[in-house]
């Protein structure tokens, strides 16, 4: 298996299942309502904000893979548009999953030698660094999502 195919597999697995941890975004978000997704726990980011944040970087890098210039800034990565209905929440999840799948397909097709070339600009490092960083970033925030969800469910049980 080539390195690009392996990287794509890791990204796909953290989104859709099959990774070493047996935890993935799709399963963790499957039964989260829009109200839960937008409920803030303590001073933590909401589940919806974390999903948006993870997808913000995937979407930005995906556009570069599709030939567009890199047009993203960390300062906007938490600027979640309002989620005011189940439809809004479903649209956010659907976009995150669709972008992830499209991105994995492009990673699979990437010639392996391209992994070591500069991504968009030398200051961003190599394609490999950016792909691997997105995988690590997704795992990191998946853990946060799982914890926020667990807290929300426990608080709901305590009210009953």
Please summarize what this structure is.
It contains 6 helices and no strands. With 160 residues, it is mostly helical. The relative contact order is 0.19.
Q: Which helices and strands, and how do they pair?
A:
Blueprint: H1 3-16, H2 25-29, H3 34-37, H4 47-65, H5 86-109, H6 127-159
Helix pairs in contact: 1-5, 1-6, 4-5, 4-6
Task: Write structural notes for this entry.
By secondary structure, the protein is an all-alpha fold. It is built from 6 helices and no strands. Helix 4 runs parallel beside helix 5 and helix 4 (47-65) packs antiparallel against helix 6 (127-159). The longest helix has 33 residues, at 127-159. The chain is globular. The model has no long low-confidence stretch (mean pLDDT 96).
């Amino acid at each position: 298996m080539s390195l690009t195919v392996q990287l794509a597999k890791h990204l796909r697995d953290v989104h859709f299942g099959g990774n070493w941890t047996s935890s993935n975004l799709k399963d963790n978000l499957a039964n989260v309502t829009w109200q839960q997704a937008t409920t803030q726990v303590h001073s933590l980011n909401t589940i919806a904000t974390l999903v948006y944040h993870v997808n913000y970087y995937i979407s930005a890098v995906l556009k570069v893979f599709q030939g567009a210039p890199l047009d993203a800034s960390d300062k906007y990565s938490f600027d979640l548009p309002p989620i005011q209905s189940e439809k809004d929440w479903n649209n956010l999840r659907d976009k995150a999953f669709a972008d992830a799948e499209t991105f994995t397909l492009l990673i699979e097709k990437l010639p392996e030698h391209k992994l070591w070339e500069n991504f968009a600009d030398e200051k961003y490092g190599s394609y490999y660094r950016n792909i691997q960083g997105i995988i690590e970033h997704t795992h990191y925030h998946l853990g946060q999502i799982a914890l926020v969800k667990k807290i929300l469910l426990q608080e709901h049980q305590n009210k009953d």
